[in-house]
TrEMBL record:
InterPro entries membership: Carb_Metab_Reg_Kinase/Isom, Man6P_Isoase_Firm_lng_prd, RmlC-like_jellyroll, RmlC_Cupin_sf
Name of the molecule in the record: Class I mannose-6-phosphate isomerase
Single Gene Ontology MF annotation: isomerase activity
Record organism: Lactiplantibacillus daoliensis
Keywords: Isomerase, Metal-binding, Zinc
CDD domains per UniProt: cupin_PMI_type_I_N_bac
Superkingdom of source: Bacteria
Gene3D superfamilies from the UniProt entry: Jelly Rolls
Length: 579
């Protein structure tokens, strides 16, 4: 078996799952007719995640229903000019970074009394659709939620989709993404959290030509299933200026004509989930699970600390036959809080999944360097006057398979070429202050944005060679050894980072504890393994080499079974939030 690109949870008992607008509109028409037998006036609200194709929705669904009047919610939102004024502090002028917004969708509908009254008094069948439909029609007879995954939104941005209420089809996709990340998705997720528990139907609009409809109850029941068993998110892959060829070969990825640098496999804020209902497969954002079941997934302790946010992120950085990442720094906790409104920072680590003889990691400063000169050289290299003399300032360390480099925020770092990194980090991932990008241009033909000022403000000058070796490189502590397994703690940094990682080398089988936290794991050595319930509560769950999987806190204990003991030990990396 190779890496599964479409991990799917099969749902056995469900009411129905329809695909295609025709089938969906026929069904909804029947529901409207049924409602009309009970009452004279029926209101339907179709709430849309920003990015849903509302023209399509109108033509293919709204116009096909027996409707007396329809309202496109977005038409009643404030003008783009007023909206931009209102969110200027959140969106900012930076190309990459904004400030986490506190907005609610309703904040952008300041003047809707009249239309609300019209909707309430309208006779016959009224449909309100768009982002903010439920702000206009807050108590509909039928509520439909149109969902869309973040990766699909990003692909649509790149293909020219504007942001919500904007006319920015041609804008830099980095800026569109920033607007989504800091503003639109936060606001939409807040509304979604209120609506999912009461929605009558979920419309999956990821595939424009083949939308799918299930009941809200079935969605909630399906999400509940995942709170009691291991599961995987649907991975996605993206090219990068430094990207490599390893994932293409090892994960059997389609040829994209260039490279794959990134794999998002274990970023619950961005990835999605697949559920199978008979012949119909539904895709929903993995955020839906967080928004509806945060305590069961995270565990009380982690939920109390992070709220409905999944705090651990696994992703891949593949530079095999590619280039170096940028030389970079992440913000310290106080800085990210004060400047970007984030509750915790981008603490990281690089687990080396595969390497060549020349693989390396840049980590921490050298001893005895001149700090002023360092800053001058960063500015000069940013201005294109010199090539940054990294060998003068930054440690360049050899990296081999199964090494683990810890990268608490404030530490200068960079992954070298010819390396496959499994990044095991805190969830934030765009707070990267690039300080030197090796003088190259990005895939879009422009230099990638540098943040030298911010980087210098956060650089920890005391993290030099000795400290780095003693604190950040292969800090392995043996925990237990028995006839079935060897367990070692491999990271992350003991006091500076909140994630712990244990590595289990399993001969035949071993029982793991969730440690009162959600667990995120990856099979870092061995072809395949089976995750089994110690209490018979879930069916055996199969994992292949390199797959990231999640075990909810409530599972408490689970067995990992080496399916090929004759081939030697398997290695499993287990991450959790430490006590
Ligand atoms: O920023 P580039 O050079 O693409 O580096 C790739 C990535 O490296 C990782 O360590 C993370 O810090 C990411 O936030 C970063 O974006």
């Amino acid at each position: 078996m190779t890496y599964d690109l479409t991990p799917t949870t099969k749902i056995e008992n469900y009411e129905f799952a329809f695909s295609g607008y025709q089938r969906i509109s026929t069904y909804l028409t029947e529901q409207i007719v049924n409602q009309l037998k009970k009452k004279a006036d029926v209101t339907i609200a179709i709430e849309c995640y920003p990015g849903v194709d509302t023209d399509d929705l109108k033509q293919q669904l709204v116009d096909k229903l027996p409707v007396d009047q329809s309202y496109f919610a977005d038409d009643y939102a404030m003008t783009p000019e007023s909206l931009n004024q209102k969110v200027a502090d959140t969106v900012t002028d930076d190309r990459v970074l904004g400030v986490m917004s506190h907005y609610q969708v309703a904040d952008f509908y300041p003047d809707i009394k009249t239309v609300r009254a019209d909707i309430v008094t309208g006779s016959g069948v009224t449909v309100v659709y768009g982002t903010g439909a439920t702000v206009l029609a807050s108590n509909p007879d039928i509520l439909i939620y149109c969902d869309l995954a973040r990766w699909e939104i990003q692909l649509r941005y790149r293909a020219g989709m504007p942001n919500w209420q904007q006319d920015n089809a041609d804008e830099d996709p980095l800026r569109k993404f920033k607007r989504g990340y800091f503003f639109e998705w936060r606001m939409a997720d807040r509304l979604k959290r209120q609506l999912l528990p009461k929605t009558d139907y979920l419309l999956d609009t990821n595939d424009k030509s083949e939308p799918k409809l299930i009941t809200g109850k079935d969605l909630l029941a399906s999400l509940k299933v995942l709170t009691k068993q291991p599961y995987r998110t649907v991975p996605y892959f993206d090219a990068s200026v430094w990207g490599g060829q390893w994932m293409k070969q090892h994960f059997d990825l389609p040829d994209n004509g260039q490279n794959y640098g990134w794999a998002f496999d274990g970023v619950p804020e961005e990835n999605s989930l697949y559920f199978q209902y008979g012949k119909v497969r539904i895709e929903v954002p993995a955020m839906d699970l967080m928004l509806t079941n945060p305590e069961s997934i995270l565990g009380d302790r982690v939920f109390a600390r992070f709220g409905a946010e999944f705090p651990i992120r696994f992703d891949y950085l593949d530079t095999m036959s590619g280039g170096n990442l940028s030389l970079q720094v992440h913000p310290m906790t106080e800085y990210i809080k004060d400047k970007y409104g984030m509750a915790y920072t981008q603490d990281e680590s690089y687990y080396i999944l595969d390497a060549k003889s020349d693989s390396s990691v840049y980590l921490g400063l050298k001893d005895g360097i001149d700090h002023k000169q360092l800053a001058t050289d960063f500015y000069k290299s940013a201005a294109g006057e010199i090539k940054f003399p990294d060998e003068k300032y930054v440690n360049h360390l050899p990296a081999k398979k199964h090494d683990h480099f810890l990268i608490p925020a404030g530490t200068i770092h960079c992954g070298g070429s010819d390396t496959v990194v499994l990044e095991i980090s805190a969830t934030p991932y765009i707070f990267t202050f690039k300080m030197w990008d090796w003088g190259r241009i990005g895939l879009d033909g422009k230099p990638r944005p540098l943040h030298v000022d911010e980087g210098l403000e956060n650089l920890q000058y005391n993290r030099t060679t000795d400290w780095v070796q003693k604190n950040l490189v292969n800090q392995f502590t043996p925990l237990t050894t028995n006839s079935h397994e060897r367990v070692e703690r491999t990271g992350l940094h003991a006091t500076l980072e909140f994630i712990d990682t244990n590595r289990h080398w399993i001969k035949d089988e071993a029982v793991l504890k969730t440690q009162g936290s959600v667990n995120m794991l990856n099979l870092v050595e061995g072809e395949e393994a089976m995750i089994e319930s110690t209490t018979g509560d879930f069916a055996p769950f199969h994992v292949n080499y390199g797959e990231t999987f999640i075990v909810p806190s409530g599972v408490k204990t689970y067995r990992i079974h080496n399916l090929h003991p004759e081939n030697g030990e398997i290695g499993v990396l287990q991450a959790f939030v430490k006590e």
